[in-house]
Design goal:
InterPro entries: ACCD_DCysDesulf, TrpB-like_PALP, TrpB-like_PALP_sf. By secondary structure, this protein is an alpha/beta fold. It is built from 11 helices and 10 strands. Strands 1-2-10-7-8-9 form a 6-stranded mixed beta sheet, sandwiched between helices. Strands 5-4-3-6 form a 4-stranded parallel beta sheet.
Length: 299
């Protein structure tokens, strides 16, 4: 575990120690929270005798890329159900091209059907057509994702004393897992990458309730730092990423961790964090997303 100090003037003024947990360095092909969320799902798939993983994602999904890599590394067949039937008529983007290179079979479905992907009739038809498979939800957020993420807390507690733990949120599974690891102690902050992500509060509470029988209160969801939407890369965010790399020699992804750090620095400026406290921000990886922006930007 690498904890990198972030010497930011705004943190100094606030009297706060700010650290970046480099979870993006934990695995060369399955970095950060993706490996943590998949770890026990892969074990369960094996235990149940499955030889195929079936999962869902958008055209630039970090999750699809991670499941494809996991399948190649473990010898499991992988099927990715991709949102947007029209994409099948276009050249594959870098994310999907890499997923296919890793052995993933890509199936494109229309957006209306995709929204119903977890309904029994839709899922049943997919499994009938494609064959038996261990199903992992979009983003990998299910009950078996939580213990892998909770292990991050155990590793962190063994290394350092801290007061706040910050993470970016897509589907909420990583934050839910961190909450089960924190066991109601300290404070966790989730930074939503999606616009209109208030629904995540319910999803996160539901996951922790199912996992532990507890609805935790030591956390908050920050929804003001989505940067215009999930796959939007504003000039301001790009400038932030480039300046951050110059200051700290760390590349941030354009969808998750970059938005979280924008939020943390803003909240430091506004005095949210207690003076004398230690704030740990988790870099969850996701750098493959830059391939989707490569025609527009250069790092």
């Amino acid at each position: 575990m690498l904890l990198q100090p972030l010497n930011e003037p705004v943190a100094d003024r606030a009297g706060v120690r700010l650290l970046l947990l480099r979870d993006d360095l934990t695995h060369p092909e399955l970095p950060g929270n993706k490996w943590r969320k998949l770890k026990y799902n892969l074990q369960e798939a094996r235990r149940l005798g499955h030889h195929t993983l079936l999962t869902f994602g958008g055209a630039y999904s970090n999750h699809l890329a991670a499941v494809a890599a996991a399948g190649r590394l473990t010898g499991l067949r992988t099927i990715g159900i991709v949102r947007g039937q029209e994409l099948s008529q276009q050249p594959l983007n870098p994310t999907l091209a890499q997923a296919r290179a890793d052995g993933m079979e890509l199936q494109f479905i229309d957006r209306a059907t995709y929204r119903r992907k977890h309904e029994p009739d839709v899922l049943g038809q997919l499994l009938t057509t494609l064959g038996p498979a261990y199903v992992i939800p979009e983003g990998g957020s299910n009950l078996l994702a939580l213990p892998g993420c909770a292990e991050l807390v155990q590793e962190l507690e063994a290394a350092i004393d801290f007061d706040y733990l910050c993470v970016a949120c897509g589907t909420g599974g990583t934050l839910a897992g961190l909450l089960t690891g924190l066991r109601g102690q300290r404070e966790a902050l989730g930074f939503a990458a999606l616009k209109g992500a208030d629904f995540l509060r319910h999803d996160i509470n539901q996951l922790t309730q199912q996992a532990t029988g507890t609805t935790y209160t030591n956390w908050s969801l920050q929804t003001d730092y989505h940067g215009g939407g999930y796959a939007r890369l504003s000039p301001e965010l790009l400038q932030f990423v480039q300046a951050f790399e110059q200051r700290h020699q760390v590349v941030l992804d354009p969808i998750y961790t970059s938005k979280m750090l924008v939020g943390i620095l803003d909240m430091l400026e506004s005095g949210y964090f207690r003076r004398g406290s230690t704030v740990v921000a988790v870099h969850t990886g996701g750098l493959q997303a830059w391939a989707g922006f490569q025609e527009r930007v250069a790092l």
